Amino acid sequence: MDCKEQLGIDLHIHSDASDGTFSPSEILGLAQEQNLGAIAITDHDTIKGAREAVAAGIPSSIRFLTGIEISANPPPSFPCSGSFHILGYGLGLDDPILNQTLEVLQNARRERNPQMIRRLNRLGIDISLNEVTARFKGGQISRPHIAFLMLEKKFVSSIDEAFDNYLGKGKAAYVDKYRVDCGKALKMIRGAGGVPVLAHPGLLSFHEGEPIESLSPTSPDKPVPDVFPDTFPRHLLSGKSLPPTSLIGGRVYRGRRRGHAFVGDMIRTLKAMGLRGIESHHPEHTPSQVAFYAKLAKRHGLLVTGGTDFHGSLKPDIQMGSGRGDFFVPYALYEKLKSEIGMRGEECKDEG
Ligand SMILES: [Zn+2]
Ligand SMILES: [Zn+2]
């Protein structure tokens, strides 16, 4: 039994080892200032941030989990645009397969950046990779860093504009990135002694599907509306704007609750592949999404986790621990995750 029940936690934090702007030591300092009970550093495709935090020494007032956020290809039967983000907690940092695979992913990221910069240059945006790396020393460079420099050099008026016009998926300077398959990511995390969790499922965007007129109540000469709107999970609970019949991954979903059925199938599939939890608490989830994904996790015997997806000044409206101000993840979720990882219970030394 721990003694931090009243405290909040943040299990989704990016350091400057990926696309956050704070170093792991600064993150530990901030977590102390904010009186957080537990944190995890979950950088994109790297454990360098977690490793640095451990090397720096974890303050005795904070519980710390090693972590990662892997961008994975969606399972074949659940195609979505972009990637599935798989969080891993409590990883053994010296696991050879984990380290080898992350090395491959880091190399792929490094090759992608010069390609995107070349495309931007052709579009008249005068920035170089040297400028980006000089501006963000130390960590891996990715699209948010490029966007940030575009903003600083006034080629765009916001990070969003950089993504909407240039760097977003399908935009003129976008280059697709190499990803591991979802199953491999889950297996790799578990192989390293960690617990895999599906990050922010409400942000997944599903778009596959053909109109299936024979199944639709709409008359044949009337076009069936888009079978599967882009941001399907966001509309799970409204259901109003959805067409009556949806086809995705070769399965047909009908009726008002077809969104729920679809996501239920997806979670069942991921669980069979090794998934152990769902990140229901995320600043981009609405309160009803938080409740929905927590309920879904319970129904499938999975853990619930949460964090702010803190990136420092790359996402200035999100604060560590508190998101946009009212975000709170209870300490009890850390304790459940900790016991899943199999860590020994820690005695509280700083009570009173
Ligand atoms: Zn993510
Ligand atoms: Zn993240």
Account of the protein in words:
By secondary structure, the protein is of the alpha/beta class. The protein has helices spanning 24-33, 48-56, 96-122, 129-135, 143-152, 159-167, 182-191, 258-272, 287-299, 331-341, and strands at 9-13, 38-41, 63-73, 84-89, 180-181, 195-198, 245-248, 251-254, 277-281, 303-306. Strands 1, 2, 3, 4, 5, 6, 9 and 10 form an 8-stranded mixed β-sheet that branches. A two-stranded antiparallel ribbon has the order 7-8. Helix 1 (24-33) packs across helix 2 (48-56) and helix 5 (143-152) packs across helix 6 (159-167). The structure holds zinc ion (ZN) (2 copies). Residues 12, 14, 69, 309 line the site of one zinc ion. Residues 69, 85, 199-200 line the site of one zinc ion.
Hetero ligands: zinc ion
Taking the alpha carbons of the first and last residues, their distance comes to 16 Å
- At the fourth CATH level, what is the homologous superfamily? Metal-dependent hydrolases
Order of helices and strands: EHEHEEHHHHEHEEEHEHEH
Instruction: Please state the CA-atom Rg, rounded to the nearest Å.
Output: 21 Å
- Roughly how much helix do the residues carry, as a percent range? 25-40%
Our estimate of the beta-strand percent is 5-15%
* Large-scale geometry: globular
What is the C-level CATH assignment? Alpha Beta
Class of secondary structure makeup? alpha/beta
Largest sheet: 8 strands, mixed
The number of strands is: 10
